Amino acid sequence: MSENRLLYSECLRIYEVEESFIDSLHEVGLIRVVGLDEERFIEYDDLPDLEQFIPWNYEMDINVEGIDALRHMLEKVRSLQSEIAQLRHELQFYKSL
Asked: Max Cα separation, the chain?
């Protein structure tokens, strides 16, 4: 097994999720499933996202399309927050002149 990947079957066991859920996330591009030889793997970099998506689906009953929309909105919010922080920093600089 690669150092950067989790065996697909282990992921299903550890996170106690259905294969169809993981496959749906992969189909819309939310996580990467890689096939090597006869095995499938999930990239470690995708595990934090997967850990966020699981309660959205299983506890809040949000479908995969909704998860994709929420992820996109959260990325936009983070981007805007970063832009605001940068603008505040620039404003403080100009105020100090």
From this structure: 64
